Amino acid sequence: MIDRETSASSPMDDEKPPSANERFKSRSGNLLMMGVVAAAAAHYALFAFFPTLKADVIDFTAEEIESVELPPEVRVPPPPEQIARPATPRVAAAALDEDITIARTDFESNPIENLPPPPTGARPSDVPSYIPRDVEPRLLNADDLIEMAKQRFPKGLRQAGIRGRVGVFFFVSAEGVVTKAVVQESCGYEQLDNVALEVAKAGKFEPAMIRDRPVGVWIVMPIDFTKT
Hints:
Elements lengths: L3 H4 L3 H4 L5 H30 L50 E3 L35 E2 L2 H10 L3 H5 L4 E9 L5 E8 L4 H12 L3 E2 L1 E2 L4 E2 L1 E9 L3
Antiparallel strand pairs: 1-8, 2-5, 3-4, 3-8, 6-7
């Protein structure tokens, strides 16, 4: 005989314990409700206690524009012209006869002792005298002087076979120009002496220098007249 009390199942025995998912759902609902309440309270407090914001007054009026006088236009000078290249030396096609020779102008060929001292009260350019310098003047147009002396050689003296040497004092100014020429030693023929003076006055020099400053000086230069 079966006992009813033992055979009948208890209703508590049929109920299963809640799963983790069911427990999370029931718990999350409560948490959601609490979050909504907290958010509402935070927004209320934000609007209730936050300081009132006021917009600044913006002025749209513009300042009056003043006219300003521009300074006068400054004209920039044009750049300097390009420096011309030195001319290429040209060799003469015609051979020049070496009738006239111009001696060297250094101290060895023309010792200072040949120049007399200047007289008292005279200017250096008045009479031949020694003028101190550091750099001697340099003749620039020797070929032109040779050609000039050749052309002005008196024809009668040339045909007669006359030759000679004329010693000439040159005063070379600070600009390199011969301003005065004096016969130092005649060759014995006045016509040749005059030609030598003309040739001397046509000379062009680089001026003598003393302490980087050009200075006028006297130099001695013999001019030789020889026949061909």
